[in-house]
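User: Predict the full complex structure for these chains.
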Amino acid sequence: MTDPNTTLSPLELETHDKTYLDANELVINMGPQHPATHGVLRVILRLDGEKVLGLECVIGYLHRGVEKIGEHRTYTMFNPYVDRMDYVAAVSNGLGYCETVEKLLNVEAPPRAQYVRVILTELNRIASHQLWLGTHALDIGAITPLFYTFRDREEILKIYEKYCGARLTTHAFRIGGLQYETYTGFEKEVTNFLNFFRPKIDEYEELLTTNRIWVERTKNVGTISAEDCIALGVTGPVLRASGVKWDLRKAQPYANYKNFDFEIPIGENGDTYDRYLVRMAEMRQSVRIIQQAVDALPVGPIMAKVPKVMKPAAGEIYHSIEAPKGELGYFIVSDGSTQPYRLRVRPPSFVNLQALDVMCRGQLVADVIAVIGTLDIVLGEVDR
Amino acid sequence: MHEIIQYVESYLTSEQTPGAAGNMFWALVYIMLVFGGLSVAVIAMNWLERKILAHMQVRLGPMRVGPHGLLQPIADAIKLLLKEDIMPAEADGLVFWMAPLIVVLAAFTVFVVVPFGPTHAITDMNIGILFMLGVSSLSVLGIVMAGWASNSHYPLIGALRSSAQMVSYEVAMGLAVVSAILMTSLNKDGTGTLSMIGIVQAQLAQHEWFIFKFFPLGLVAFFIFAVAMVAETNRAPFDLAEAESELTAGFHTEYSGFRWSLFFLAEYSAMIAVSSIAVTLWLGGWLRPFPNMLSGSPWDQIFSMFPGVTFLFFAAICFFNTVRMPKHPLFRIQTIGLAGFGVVLALIGLVLFVPDVSVRIQDIFWFSAKVAGFMYLYIWYRGTFPRYRFDQLMQMGWKVLLPMGLGVLILTASVALLQQKIWHP
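Assistant: Here is the predicted structure of the two-chain assembly.
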């Protein structure tokens, strides 16, 4: 087993072929219980010293069969389940699901509901990016940003809690609009948060952006080209950092995103540092969008006319939104009954995780940690 | 009996360290004092690190065990002692058992020559600084043994990283130390010294701390040492050996309970040890600050009050927080405890104002205060910096610090030669 380009996968090497104990190669099992694999991801690393020759992800430790559950619940009953996939961006999941079913039913949520949805979803994007920043920095060894981001994320969660009673698995939206009218002072609280949060982004950047060690640890680490991204189906900030201007909010505007003025930040090199910069810029853009939405929040009904028992006509639909981590798509096949015949989720984390091998080859072990962090995966979404 | 008392008393008039004077009794007493003080310092450091780091990170840190978590380190120590002693089935028993002992031994033995004052050291070796560097680098052996004996991948990688790191930074560290030792030979009599006490006395004789000597050469050498010593002790941002997010806990992943606490103890006492070297070589050891500008007996008087004032200041903080304690019956014991702690500190402070005491305690105070400054820096680094990657760390050691160290050494030697031969022949 001296040939480093062996065709056997690391998993096979570990389980079947005992000759891997050659002096040149070391097979290390990282996870599923490991502080930096963001949950229960298991990565089998094939190392030459500290250099990564290849790796293989083993997933499924958090599989709960969400898609199968969907086939046995009515459309309304399944709504809370989607929150449990990407639990740090539950609101985005809900938005994607509700919009998909609305499309299937040919219903459109009223304008006020659309605006509130945009506000909550963009707040969720900020919250998700904050969690990413904190854990990513922690993985690279900067322990302080975590506490700063969590302190500020708390303010977003407070708004959620006041709006719908839950902080993480919010179940904020209903098919056809919203269940709850916003509470008194909602606009003011959101505006207050925006004013509070704008300087906080600068604070995060002050800690990291020009920090020499941070730059050295992230520049030219986990580089992935735009072609590779597209070939692997990678979406979201990872794709944009490689220089592809693809954001579903602009490319295929859903909800009422076409009403808002914002930019799509892109990177150049597709390395970890660019992905960091792109996400930081995205937080600023989200603030911009929320500000516009709060200023233009119309009055009116919050719920469209939806049948009590939903029986969409037989057919199929695919609808996707730009979740904080990338393209989140729902594919629903309806057979005309109250339950979907088949429900399939296209989670961004699952697809993006494919790129891990490409990004880590030839890098060091420490970079694998940085790359897992920068991919911003949530295992609840990968395994569903 | 009489002879024993005579033997004990005979040292009291001595101007030497007990080791140098050959008095075994007082040497033993000093050993007890130093190691007792060291253990207390590690406990205090544990609490301070958690508190300071917590306040840097907008949290409170330990608050429950004792007032403001003051008893937390003791609770932790008891927990660690009571834990089951686990040895992995596949481990190499003897090596696994010996590794923490070697690390602790190396970390504690160096304190034999640390000079807390002109006479306040266990002994004064004429090769003091070499002894410190040599013995402290022995801890690499223990770390490699721990990593190897655990018979597991992560500890092995951690141990290899750690040993490579310590060995390569020792080179730069050594060069910086040599340039400081070179400065000791600029005394009037022209002979240099390796003795820790001698190095401080050289700074006293030359009326200049070596950090300011040949500005900026002394400063650069000090900077090299200050960076290398963080790497040498495996602390953030060079804590690759125990990079939590990469290697779980590095070389001591498989250790638990008391054995683990020995590694912990060794890490902190090693930090104190290298800080002591830095203080001795560049910051004037036990000498008080501003000896040149603010000299004369009134200033001596004022500076001799510092130890007492410091303790009174700590006591004042305690009293201030006693007043701020929640006025609830549940907090009564904690409030009383905090007030009691403040009273103890205040009493110590008052005792330190007694002239006889303050004269004798000053040296130790200034030395400890300078070391405490370094300890704060360690915590500050940890709260601020991300972690270096292994290759970047090596690059930093070999490509930046080593050439810098060589350059400083050559320049220091040249300037010293010029000074001796040309300016002051």
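The two ends of chain B are 57 Å apart (CA to CA).
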